[in-house]
């Protein structure tokens, strides 16, 4: 199930009421993707199509699960979207990117290649890019991995997804002090 094309977006809680509604615990920056007609797969390989979603009450109801007994079977399942669906359903603002697009981007400060993005970590105050340090720098004694805060202007100058390049600022200092 966990092929890299699937993105975890929510978990289903317990059934609420008799009409097949379930609690929905969203783990995504794009709640707008949970709309009538949207289809998600689950960690048990079910395809679920949303019949209705009530954002204020955090309740969701799926096609063919329209009573409490069938809905109960979905409790605790995880919902996944695909990269394609996510790109279609989620509109990005300026300087917003999908984390899966940032992975494997090369990171440069001035003309020095600092490394490659391995992972994006989400912390309460900021997201951080986990960077695998370029081998030339590792050979000079720098740490193999370091974190750059995902803060525009202060650290991130420019992200070019097409060419997989992120230009940064003040990040060599972080590497030196890591």
Automatic annotation (TrEMBL):
The keyword Chaperone applies. Coiled coil: none annotated. Its main location: cytoplasm. InterPro entries: PRC_barrel-like_sf, PRC_RimM, RimM, RimM_N, RimM_N_sf, Transl_B-barrel_sf. It comes from the Bacteria. Keywords: Chaperone, Cytoplasm, Ribosome biogenesis, rRNA processing. One of its GO terms (cellular component) is ribosome. The keyword tRNA-binding does not apply. Binds ribosomal protein uS19. Belongs to the RimM family. This is Ribosome maturation factor RimM. It comes from Arcobacter defluvii.
